[in-house]
Amino acid sequence: MRHRLKDVAERAGVSVKTVSNVVNGYAHVRPDTRARVEEAIAALNYRPNLSARNLRKGRTGIIALAVPELDIPYFAELARHVVSAAAELGWTVLIDQTGGGREQERVVASGITDHLIDGLIFSPLALTADDLVNLDGTPMVLLGERVDRGPADHVVIDNVAAAREITNHLVGLGRRRIAAIGSQRTPEGASARLRLDGYRSALAEAGLGYDEALVAPAPVWHRADGAAAMRHLLSSGVRPDAVFCFNDTLALGALRALHETGLRVPEDVAVAGFDGIEDGRFSVPTLTTIAPDKERIARLAVELLANRIEGDRSAPPRELAAPYRLEPRESTQGRHP
Amino acid sequence: MRHRLKDVAERAGVSVKTVSNVVNGYAHVRPDTRARVEEAIAALNYRPNLSARNLRKGRTGIIALAVPELDIPYFAELARHVVSAAAELGWTVLIDQTGGGREQERVVASGITDHLIDGLIFSPLALTADDLVNLDGTPMVLLGERVDRGPADHVVIDNVAAAREITNHLVGLGRRRIAAIGSQRTPEGASARLRLDGYRSALAEAGLGYDEALVAPAPVWHRADGAAAMRHLLSSGVRPDAVFCFNDTLALGALRALHETGLRVPEDVAVAGFDGIEDGRFSVPTLTTIAPDKERIARLAVELLANRIEGDRSAPPRELAAPYRLEPRESTQGRHP
DNA sequence: AACGTTGACTACAACGTTGTAGAAACCAGG
DNA sequence: CCTGGTTTCTACAACGTTGTAGTCAACGTT
Fold first, then answer.
1. DSSP string for B8-50
2. Chain B contact set for A256 (CB, 8 A)
3. One MF term from GO for this chain (chains A, B) (predicted)?
């Protein structure tokens, strides 16, 4: 049923190694021999056994991408780009869903490295630098978080600056009671904390006070949590005239809650998100957001990983920044800006 | 750095095979020997080399899931469930993105089977039964399409009945000029065709004529295509009072286009989708849809694949149906039904 | 004609694991 | 004390591939 080098070799009348050489494009093979081997390969529909090749070479050609949840659009879009970028280098991507819990993430960070993958691109939610120390030296690239003095390469965007910029955008529209949705009691360095920092710093620059009552936590960043947080803000009587949601799904939930309350967006409350997901281009109203360059993030991550795998594993960790863009849309600027 | 059975064996003072036996839970090992081996395993942080194990056993513990695009919410949600269901059986899922093109899908269907995976769950867009004949016997489960007399197991939902049901829902609301968005010139059997069939059959039952002008094609089923198709329908002067979109992303695009035109949903035009994606619960207005039981689909697919891998590979292909539910929401029923 | 160099190919071992066969130690029943 | 069966463990080969070392012929140079 399934053929091996040996079968091809017998059919072509050469040694196994010669077939292997043909398969791997080794230069010194006579044209007629090569042709005979290729004919045999085609006739038997030979394809190499990757397990055996991996065992021999110590490489698998597979990298893993670990994200919290696949059906959060941001991660789905990111995954798409990572798969594409990896394919260009001839790699296959194994996608892992951590669920975002600390224990599960720890398992992925240490256990996934069971020799089956050459490297890991990891987008952690709960882990901190301390959790990432003991890694058997499997190359790893971290995404999205600034894990200070982390033990691995990482690709970041400047969350603080981006959050400041989008908050400034709201300030620039004349909004004065700007709420935030999505704060979390997470360790220093996580996205929630950084985006909160940017928000606070923009408020301070604008001479607006920081009001704890305007900051709504969200344990996870799903649409339902955004809607719940928005309802909570509205019912608590603080009456914001703008909301900065720490990601787009929260913002879509907030839009929905505002719609149900009968408030107009942006006239009564302006809404801004973060992530630049596709949904935001088609929501009613369309969503103002910070759009990180996901393609760039994916490509940088794959390249960093490639360098690690093929190059010096003991080189000091590198940190690369990916660009982002503020994309003003209807949810802050109205229909005809 | 990385330890092998041999290292553990030396440390515990036993043979490699005994360590292997401990690792694999073989029964006849003396308790004290087992303890010594386990101590050594822990001390060296030993983890088996899967490539070697795979080579020896002919199994990898990895199954592949091939979907057209990861950032189409339906597939992202499906992927999530497949990963979860597979994890319960101790399997890892390798996710592949085909792009939906026929050639790429053919490559996946034949090429992914490079000995690295034990089986494949495949959600094809363009392939037909004919493309799936020559598969080297790698177990495969097809999703979503009714590939008639196909060579593999598949999990389907009754697209025709579901489409008829949601069209009936629109008819029941008193709509008479019901448009459809998403038709494709695809081979017999693909989703687009089946959903169109259901739509036509419901119209016929209701005594409403079939009007070609009310059916808008969409080459792919993204939001932008739904918006474009809706605009096209509106500008062509046919004035529908309802639209059945062949999936939810098309419907979200259509909602957006209607909003831009100033038409009210559902008062002027009722909108229905298909897929039951999470977005539809939070859109403005919320989206009436056919929601297939994705968790069930995923579990059935994984179980079928498990049977195929562990059981009789030459058994005749099986077809299992997963249930779906009509979920009426604001886009057809209005705010307070 | 003898020499080294290159090209074309092959035999063999090794990657880390597990199945098979079997040896050694132990046990129970006569 | 022997017999037959079980338990506990081990040596060896094999899975399919590729790196290393090497053979042999053809070639160009002295």
1. HHHHHTS-HHHHHHHHTT-S---HHHHHHHHHHHHHHT----H
2. 282-284, 286
3. transcription cis-regulatory region binding
